[in-house]
């Protein structure tokens, strides 16, 4: 039985802001990511457990590179406040989020040492190295454009699932995952990412380089969809 469906949350995007425009320009890739069958399986509880466990292990490995991306963001920043923000984000991943992830995974019978020893899947390699490459070859805006689908997309996914009448929370083994990313604290993180992207776009000439930013954002969305597909393909 599904829990009572809450009213849809307001869109995180600022109309006309850079994130809003990038998402609109890449709508097919964005939709294939945020509405992937893996996501629907999380919402209604039908996702095979083997698919979810595989995702959890690869997400652990992904977080390591996500922390590296924020270290790169601190290096690429030219404002002290952006350096401090990147440093806080890296510390939050290394000192808090990874510990929470490990404890969550333990409930699924996954050991940290075993996860750390697992080879990175092709989808993990593709997305994490793409993000780092965009940061190394481009500037801070390119890096945050590549990171945005992950940070903001998870908040949109969770909000959509919470508002979907087809979502089942009572008895759903993935309900805690949905609630975690629907939590106001995580939504605030995603909103801050939107604001940062919009500000960097204004400061770093997004209008003149919009076509290049669209290519980066679209690629990141497709790689995120590939990350879901990695686990979804194991269902058979």
What would you note in describing this structure?
The protein has helices at residues 18-25, 27-34, 37-44, 49-76, 80-106, 112-117, 122-137, 140-163, 175-182, 184-203, 210-232. It has 236 residues and is mainly α.
Keywords summarizing the entry:
Thiamine_Salvage_TenA; Aminopyrimidine aminohydrolase; thiaminase activity; Haem_Oase-like_multi-hlx; 236 residues; mainly alpha; EC 3.5.99.2; 75% helix; 11 helices
Secondary-structure content class: mainly alpha
The stretches of 5 or more residues where confidence is low (pLDDT under 50) are none
Q: Beta-strand level of the residues, as a percent range? A: under 5%
Q: What is the straight-line distance between the termini?
A: 26 Å
Radius of gyration: 17 Å
**Shape category:** globular
Please count the helical segments: 11
Nearest-integer average pLDDT:
94
- Percent of residues in helices comes to over 70%
Q: How would you name the oligomeric state of the polypeptide chains in this document? A: single chain
Function: Catalyzes an amino-pyrimidine hydrolysis reaction at the C5' of the pyrimidine moiety of thiamine compounds, a reaction that is part of a thiamine salvage pathway.
Pathway: Cofactor biosynthesis; thiamine diphosphate biosynthesis
InterPro entries: Haem_Oase-like_multi-hlx, Thiaminase-2/PQQC, Thiaminase_II, Thiamine_Salvage_TenA
EC number: 3.5.99.2
Helix and strand arrangement:
Blueprint: H1 18-25, H2 27-34, H3 37-44, H4 49-76, H5 80-106, H6 112-117, H7 122-137, H8 140-163, H9 175-182, H10 184-203, H11 210-232
Give a quick rundown of the structure.
Pathway: Cofactor biosynthesis; thiamine diphosphate biosynthesis. It holds the Pfam family TENA_THI-4. The protein is an all-alpha fold.
